[in-house]
Amino acid sequence: MRVDGNVAGDDGNGRNGSGDSEISAAWARVKRRLRAELGEDVYASWFARLELEAVDGGTARLTVPTRFLKSWIESHYLDRVLTTFRAEVEAIARIEVGVRGTGAPTRPVTAPGASRPSPTSGPLARLQASPQPTPVAVAAVPEARPAEGGDLNGTPLDARLTFASFVVGRSNALAHAAAERVARHEGEGALYNPLYLHAGVGLGKTHLLHGIGHAARESGRRVIYLTADRFMYGFVNALKTQNALAYKERLRGIDLLILDDVQFIQGKSIQAEFGHTINALIDAGRQVVVASDRPPTELEALDERVRSRLAGGLVVEIGTLDEALRVSILTARLQAVRTAHPTFEVSPTVAAYVARAITANGRDLEGAVNRLLAHATLTGTAVTMETAETAIRDLVKNREPKRIKIEDIQKLVASRYNVSRSDILSERRTAAVVKPRQIAMYLSKVLTLRSLPEIGRRFGGRDHTTVLHAVRKIEKQIGEDAVLGDEVELLKRMLQD
């Protein structure tokens, strides 16, 4: 998209309601390009939570949730982000990064030779010239407050996220039971050490971690809850201030360490310290609880010894939300809202529709409740099926695609071709094994964001050139053999459903 004062579709007189959406679409393309160019692991670590807050003239204001992420992006990737953004929107001359919920961002980066533009029309001009309206905040539940007794400079626990407010269903019952057992354990030693929870976005793992922290503190145990960002920031800061030894000793002197989003831990020295810390705690009989978006075996950026230690405890996956659980979560959210807004009503029919339509995660369900509440509060009208469809349209339309794992591809292909997964990973070169192996490699390349070297490692440690040969061979055969093409398309549909 080219922006030179005007945005495509604007006639120069401001008669375009789609300008801001054009910028949002351009930002979405920027993030997709960063993901493709830098790889899934780097993108997930540093860019997944980078958001576009506003465009003011030629300055794009971006935000991240922590100071550590802000510092890292500014030090390593700011020029890359600016270059990529300018490729989509030429009027962007500067990038500023701030921390959400704090003051104005600092250290902007300006494109070489670019002056701050002053467009005369289009959304950039309107954003620059028009005062920004004060947003209307609609809260579904009371504002989060840091829990009492926070120690060791850990991340504060959210007072709302307790076991009592967690909605239990078939997909999360085992994780909930294990979390409660660990939190309320009063005997010597530790249970299921480490306890490792993994799930996709918005399925409740962070809620369980906070619940563990609250319950353990109530029993008098010394608890520290850290996000991966906070752990890395603390360690790097300790090195800079020459307090690394004290930082390590404080971490290792607690009863329960809770670490969230372990997949974001980067850097050899930080990973090594993380491994030493969990080893010291486990060997001393202290409890460790870890959460991630994938099982330990798939944390390819993490040191192998650390992955092995994490996999040595109890690993529990929190599954996707079935419809019954989504209804229960939605009902709980609506009840919480009614405590603050007694006149807010959503009929069972509308609630059932929302629970059927939104299948991705619990956060989208909470977002749907906020949208319905905003409609009822700001318009003063009842929530109908029609207004509900309009309110949640973006949540349904922009649902994240299913995350496909290489392991699932290998299992499905092995089953379809009557071989075992171990055959696919082996060195066997018989035709009965080579064909499904090459098909599985091809599907891994087209259905996941893994690089060729990563795929090769997941197929028995093969070289990336072997994967590239397999991908090209299957692509050629699909073009020549309609039967094989149909087989591969069927496998794709089965993996994506």
From TrEMBL:
Disordered as annotated region, ranges: 1-21, 102-132
Entry keyword annotation includes DNA-binding: yes
Region (Domain IV, binds dsDNA): 377-497
Domain AAA+ ATPase: 191-320
Highest taxon of source: Bacteria
Keyword terms, alphabetized: ATP-binding, Cytoplasm, DNA replication, DNA-binding, Lipid-binding, Nucleotide-binding
Subcellular location: Cytoplasm
Any one GO CC term of the record: cytoplasm
Residue stretches of biased makeup (Low complexity): 1-10
Residues the record lists as binding ATP: G202, G204, K205, T206
InterPro entries (alphabetical): AAA+_ATPase, Chromosome_initiator_DnaA, Chromosome_initiator_DnaA-like, Chromosome_initiator_DnaA_CS, DnaA_C, DnaA_dom, DnaA_N_dom, DnaA_N_sf
Annotated Chromosomal replication initiator DnaA C-terminal domain residues: 405-474
Keyword Nucleotide-binding: yes
GO MF term set: ATP binding; DNA replication origin binding; lipid binding
Pfam families to which the protein is assigned, alphabetical: Bac_DnaA, Bac_DnaA_C, DnaA_N
Segments of this protein annotated with the region Domain I, interacts with DnaA modulators: 1-110
Example GO biological process: DNA replication initiation
Xref: PROSITE patterns: DNAA
Domain notes: Domain I is involved in oligomerization and binding regulators, domain II is flexibile and of varying length in different bacteria, domain III forms the AAA+ region, while domain IV binds dsDNA.
HAMAP family, A to Z: DnaA_bact (MF_00377)
UniProt record similarity statement: Belongs to the DnaA family.
Role played: Plays an essential role in the initiation and regulation of chromosomal replication. ATP-DnaA binds to the origin of replication (oriC) to initiate formation of the DNA replication initiation complex once per cell cycle. Binds the DnaA box (a 9 base pair repeat at the origin) and separates the double-stranded (ds)DNA. Forms a right-handed helical filament on oriC DNA; dsDNA binds to the exterior of the filament while single-stranded (ss)DNA is stabiized in the filament's interior.
Record text on subunit structure and interactions: Oligomerizes as a right-handed, spiral filament on DNA at oriC.
Protein name: Chromosomal replication initiator protein DnaA
Organism: Methylobacterium hispanicum
